[in-house]
Amino acid sequence: MPGRPEGIKQLEAASAAKLDQERARCRSLDAYNYLVRNRHRENLWTALEELDETPPDERGKDKA
Questions:
Q1: For 30, what's the count of Cα atoms within 13 Å in the CB-facing half-sphere?
Q2: Which of 32, 44, 47, 64 has the fewest CB atoms within 10 Å around its CB?
Q3: Comparing C-alpha atoms, which of 64, 62, 33 is closest to residue 48?
Q4: Distance CA 9, CA 11 (A)
Q5: pLDDT of residue 1
Q6: Integer Cα distance of 31 and 61 in angstroms
Q7: Which pLDDT belongs to residue 31?
Q8: Residue 62: pLDDT over 80
Q9: How many CA atoms lie within 13 A of 15 on its CB side?
Q10: Cα–Cα dist 52/35, whole Å
Q11: In this structure, is the dihedral angle defined by the CA atoms of residues 49, 20, 35 and 38, taken in order, positive or negative?
């Protein structure tokens, strides 16, 4: 079974990538839920920045 270690490495890499995606999604949800609880929905981008998330380039366009 010489191919087994490589297969395990691939599974671990895929699992790590999926975990990173899930962490990013959860951090965004945590920020949104915090804002909803505190009724500051307009400050969602600020909360995301505080969680080290990078907002899209469209940030602030709806305020103009």
A1: 12
A2: 64
A3: 33
A4: 5
A5: 46
A6: 20
A7: 77
A8: no
A9: 6
A10: 16
A11: negative
Query: Among residues of the chain, what percentage have pLDDT more than 70?
Result: 50
Yes or no: say if 27 and 51 are a contact pair by the CB < 8 Å rule.
yes
Per domain, the residue ranges of the chain are 4-54
Tokens found for residue 63 = 């305020």
Q: How many CA atoms lie within 13 A of 8 on its CB side?
A: 5
Q: Is residue 53 within 8 Å of 24, Cβ to Cβ?
A: yes
What size, in residues, is the chain? Answer: 64
In this predicted structure, the answer to whether residue 35 has a pLDDT above a threshold of 60 is yes
